[in-house]
Write a structure and sequence with these properties.
Structural class of chain A: alpha/beta
Strand order of the largest sheet of chain A: 6-7-8-3-9-10
Oligomer: heterodimer
Largest sheet of chain B: 2 strands, antiparallel
Strand content of chain B: under 5%
Order of helices and strands of chain A: EEEHEEHEHHHEHEHEEHH
Largest sheet of chain A: 6 strands, mixed
Number of strands of chain A: 10
Number of helices of chain B: 14
Helix content of chain A: 25-40%
Structural class of chain B: mainly alpha
Radius of gyration of chain B: 22 Å
Distance between the termini of chain B: 47 Å
Chain lengths: ~240, ~325
Amino acid sequence: MSALLEVEGLTKRFGGVTAVDACSFSVPEGSVTALVGPNGSGKTTAFNLITGYARPDAGAIRFAGTPVRRPDPIRLARRGLTRTFQQARIFADLTLVQNVVAALQQPWHAALRRAVKRLERARALELLEEFGLARLAHERAGSLSYGQKKLLEFATVLMAEPRLVLLDEPTAGVNPVLVEQIEQRVRDLNARGLTFLVVEHNMNLVMRLCDPVVVLDHGTKLAEGRPDEVRSDPRVLDAYLGG
Amino acid sequence: MSRATAAGLLRGGAFAAIGIAFPFVVHAAWIVNIGVLALMYAALATAWNLFSGYTGYISLGQAAFFGLGAYTLAIAFEHFGVGSGYKPFWALPLVGAGVALASLPIAWIALRTRHMTFAIVTLTLLFVVQQLAFNLRSLTHGSSGLMLPTPSFGIDNYDRPFYLAMLALLLVALGLCWLVLRSKLGLMLLAIREDEEKARGLGIRVTGAKLVAWWLSIAVTAMVGGVWAYYLTFIYPEPAVDPLVMIGAVLMTFLGGRGTLWGPTIGALVLVPAQQYLLTRWGASQWYLVGYAAVFMIVLLVLPRGILPSLRDGLVRLRERRRTRRRGVMRREAAA
């Protein structure tokens, strides 16, 4: 498998703290790669660097074989690299359908077309149906529960048909039924060829769903490999349990 | 055409018809004069709403571009000659487009800031333009002001052409808002208002969308300034770049409902006549400013979202209550 995303020597310092320290790993095309590690190990910072929300102090990022020189969220999203946030971020005052349709990346000449065209509405409804949100399609997104907001955010990033989706703790604070639903969605989409990079604290889920698993600690890569390899790696056990 | 579109067009058409008929029915000059002011503020507030209401970026620099529009037309009169009578009105689109175009680089820089910082940065534009008006004497004659030729309209209905020009600009502003709100651009602007970082993550070109909205908003604002200058035939820096003009427009937008289509117009049509009344009663003592502040407080306390959204919420609640009551009756009947 070739790598869809390659990260090399990625470094980010906040004052005296080195949040991400010469971190290198890659996400094979068609995989569900996990990025795990104790709290404060730099997972979310790495996400922010990869998606252009923060500027790295050093390091190189390659997406789909081409280097990303100045990561910028807008350009990356338009090239097919998109993300969700740890705290689900949605457009609270818009309806669910508007939320999903807003994620369709428009060329400038379409700016004055109708906000939600019939075909787009149909596709949005289809997507919401897959996530079990269709009956709420015309409600304000702000009225959703926390778990539903996470589902909506997930559905939204899919609208533009990305190649790589970065999920930041997709199941944090979500009830077990929704966790199962999110897992199933990831599996289905992955079977259709979508690649994922997932930050997740639910280790059972990671072991079931992800391969390979990348372990971070203090901003550097501790281990990378198949879930069972990583699980029995003494350094990983040490980082999680001891020292 | 969908039903909502038809209803929207009907509402707009009815408003335009009543607006046009008004100065032909009412001839009292002082009333038409209040009409000119009310429409001017309605157009300014609607233009302000087009950018600030939809993007959430509170711009406090609107008056700077109102003043620039006024001065541009006045200077055009002096140096190029734009005709007399109705002819100067035809120069307005050029004035609007030009001022808005010139403002884009400044907007691009200002838009690198957000929230409070953006408000303050745009506020400083106002003082910059005012200082320019004072000091670029060769163009503006500084504090002694610029004279425009007196329009050659009949003394009986002197205000009417200005009334109609302001109405036309208000209709243009409303039409633009309507088009934007229904379009992809509108969806982008609302997404920016809700969560700009998220919008960027989805690949929405936020800067471009904001600049288009800014351009449209400033173009209308500058045209209104041009009509105002021609109406007064004499402008000097203080009233041309007046913070009160902008505060008025913002206040009216908040009163009517920020981010709605008709809110700013409703706010202006309520506040301007009220303001004129207060001005004639207590004008000399500036007490009307206290009245202004009181309106602001009442809006914040009673109608924090403005007249239109509050009305809409109230209607929805009323309908729900009626529906539950009806259901209750049906249930009781079924039980009996």
